[in-house]
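Field reference: "sequence" (input) and "structure" (output). Example, Ras-GAP domain-containing protein:
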Amino acid sequence: MAAPATPSTSTHSPSASVHSHLSRRLTNRMTNRYSVNAMYSLAAEQDIELEDELSRAQKKLRDLKSRISSQSKKNFVLERDVRYLDSRIALLIQNRMAADEKRQVAETLEDVDEDSGLWPDEKKMGQYANLFFLLQSEPRHIASLCRLVSLSEIDTLLQTVMFTLYGNQYEQREEHLLLTMFQSVLSAQFETTTEFGSLLRANTPVSRMMTTYTRRGPGQSYLKGVLADRINSLIEHKNLNLEINPLKVYEQMIQQIEEDTGSLPPSLPRGVPPEVAAANSDVQAIIIPRITMLMEIANSFLSTIIDSLDSVPYGIRWICKQIRSLTRRKYPDATDASICSLIGGFFFLRFINPAIVTPQAYMLVDGVPAKHPRRTLTLIAKMLQNLANKPSYAKEQYMMSLNPFVENNKARMNQFLNALCEVGDFYESLELDQYMALSKKDLQINITLNELYNTHSLLMQHMDVLSPNDKHHLRILLDELGAAPAQVPRKENRSIELPLYSRWETPIQDLSTSLMSDSVTQNDINYMETKSIFVQLLRSMPTIADKRPINLGALAEKAATSKDPVLVRRGIKVQALLTELDAAGVIDRADEYKLMQDEVSAEMVHLGNAKEKVVLEARSLESVYKTICDHNNYLRGQLEQYKAYLQNVRLTSSKDKGATGVGVVTVNGKEKKQVDKKVLGPRMNIYFMITSPAPGTFIIALHFKGRDKPILEMDLKIDDLLEKQKDQQAMLDLEYVQLNVPKVLALFNKLFSKKR
């Protein structure tokens, strides 16, 4: 919203004085991040149907943001399913999972049948509508609940909170309510933490909340916009090895020497301790240029992140601000460096670094990076973390060689972390948003039955702590709802559109009433509304909008006498407002309402710029939406593989209860158990084929799904494996994977030894 223009000197000194006084008052209010003037303009626009270019662009952007919010939730749920199945799939491979666990896995793979299951009745739906309106509009209840639940319960609750209750990730009111909840949770965390060093570091519900928050749409958009190009340019160099761990460098060096010469000199024995590897002059010569290059790359990442300050989502910056504010209040003696380390612990440890280490999980790259770039990204993340946090080299002494990067950039980093906190608060606008929400007819959330029932169950479980007084609204609603229904099978876990409304508040029909206070007079309200209506009229009549100066009186008359009933209504209303403001001395008809004229002109310029920003933002978000959809398809592909695999397990289990392993081969179109051959997998697209062509001889083949020939084969003799075990060589290197020797021996015995 543009600031009001300073009125020119008028011959009518009393009027000019009034103009100047009002201008100063309005200008002072404009210094707030969200002025009442700006908020009123937003409110006044709600009942106008506009079809200009800005309006169309805004509608397109709103639709896009809504789709991103919805898709983000779907991806979050799919990622949870994939993680759960991935943790269980190893048990399935060995066919040692209990029957109830198998059913649970099978249910996780079932699609929801929208026609099955039962809906809550109309009375229950009304009660849930009241309950979830209360939970959404009074975040303290959810904040308390998040601190009370166990770690095993937090993920499901966070899904409901982050992607359902406050799921409209680009809507101002919901975002601000969610941040209010964060403030409450963080305040409690600071109150209960006894040692400064343990603040925000443990894996607690609070830390999980902070991590989950960064996975919402705005955070993902930021990561893609800031990090994607930098990471993609790095991973193009697949063979660039920047390993600086002396032990690994030594092992790679002697392996290369052995490949080149066929043997190793006596001076380069295998299995040396780290200090011997670090002292080797050849190893040092390899590492030194790598350190230089790593610091150059890390500097480029750091510069990119620092330059992106203005792009960091408001919510993430506001959380940083709360961390700083709470730390200063709770620990007044804490140094600026210590406070910055806490801010960095959130911003880098929980937001930036996970995306650098696993960019494929954040949709920043296509596929998993190659081995060497992946290691480089890990080292870069460690360097940034050491810079943002207090560096610790206890476990990785070799990282000390990168300490110059920390020393050279510490001041720069702390300046950035402090700058992150420099954002305004939102309490003034949130109060108005809450008033407006009461008069909305379309406030609703999309929620699954299990989310509904799980939240209900958790609230009932902790009701005595959350609402000890039986007169509290939350207690009244929970008492009326009674016990929570049990979780429904996944197939019946339908989504419902739950309208939200309060049973204790009367919707506010007149927004002016809600704005009246000691600091905002009726003249202020009229002035704001008049300006807003003129802007709407100009947007509705673009042929007039380009003419300067704007003749406000003629514009109002033209609208009042037009054939469009909406314009007529607005024209008549603004004429009355002009007369009232003129009579009050706020504006002056004699100078053609110069103060109002200047502000309306400035507002139209602002709206022109706003259209360009909306179009640019939409283009950026189109890319984000496409990436999120691609990731959704990838996750669905993983689930489809699990489905096929589960079917394989079922077939094998039902046909041969005594068989070990889950391999099924096809012979002449019929499934048949193959003699002396075992298939382990598939685990994603890769599986092992183990055969025993002769007693004591085994062939392990690594296959990629869809390829006839194996990626590699290894011929193993039982005595070779026993010798490795005797020499305490625990790992068997297959180039792409490493196998544990004792476990491989145990597996061979289990699969191929004859039953006595």
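The beta strands are 444-448, 495-499, 665-667, 670-672, 677-683, 686-694, 697-704, 712-717, 731-733, 738-740.
Residues 594-655 form the longest helix (62 residues).
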